[in-house]
Amino acid sequence: MINKVQAKGTYVFEQEVLLEKVYDLLNIFFGSKELFRRCDLNDEQDPLNLLHRRFFDRKVSRLMIEIAATLRVMDDHMRNLPSESPERKEYMEKVKHADQFSFGLFDDLNLDLRQTCNKIIHTEVFELHLVNGSEAHENDIVFQQDMGDREIHWQHYRDYIRLAGRRGKQQWFVLLNIETFVSAVVKLLG
Q1: Cβ neighbours, 10 Å, residue 78
Q2: What's the distance, Cα to Cα, between the start and end of the chain in Å?
Q3: In degrees rounded to 5, what are phi and psi of residue 113?
Q4: Is 175 helix (H, G, I), strand (E, B) or coil?
Q5: What is d(CA 75, CA 72) in angstroms, rounded to the nearest whole number?
Q6: Residue 111: how many CB atoms within 10 A of its CB?
Q7: Any idea what the Cα angle at residue 69 is, between residues 164 and 160, rounded to 5°?
Q8: What does pTM read for this prediction?
Q9: For 123, phi and psi rounded to 5 degrees?
Q10: Segment 38-52, tens digit of pLDDT
Q11: Is 72 helix (H, G, I), strand (E, B) or coil?
Q12: Can you tell me the distance from the alpha carbon of 128 to that of 107, in angstroms, rounded to the nearest whole number?
C-alpha cells in the first residue's frame, strides 16, 4: 500500500491526512441531518441553527476542493512515473476500481474520478438541495409520543450537490453524490 507519495521533491502527499479530510467531509455532510433535526428552525439565534447555517457550506466546499485538488496533483504525479514503475502500476490498478463508480445522479457525462475532481475544482455553482425530514423533529414532542400529527416539519440536505460551470462556451452540470465520491476516494487511497 502506498502511504506517502513524493512528487519530485516538491510535494509529499500523506494519504492518511487526505483520508482524514474525506472522513471529515462524510461526517459533516451526513451529520447535518441530525443538526437540522435538533435546531429550532423558527429561532435564527438558536446556537445549533446559527453554527450550522454559518459554517456548513463553507466547510463542505473547502473540504471538497482540498480533496479534489490534492487528488488531481497526486494523479498527475503518478501518471508521470515510468510505466514500468511498481508504484504507478499499483496506483493505476486502484484507479480502475475507483473509476467503476457512477458519480452523478444523471451520469450522462460518464465521469471518472479525475474528471469529477476537475468538476469540483472548476465549479462556478455549488448548490445544496433540501429534502423533507422523515423522522420526528427533536422538539416535536406530540408527534414523538404518538399523541398527534407532526407539528414541526423540517428539512435537511440531500445526498447530492449540484456543481455547474462552463468549459469554453459549453455549460455543464453534475449532481454529485457525496457518498459515492467518498467511496471512490477511499477505494483509491484505501
Answers
A1: 20
A2: 8
A3: -65, -40
A4: strand
A5: 5
A6: 20
A7: 40
A8: 0.84
A9: -65, 145
A10: 887 677 888 988 888
A11: helix
A12: 18
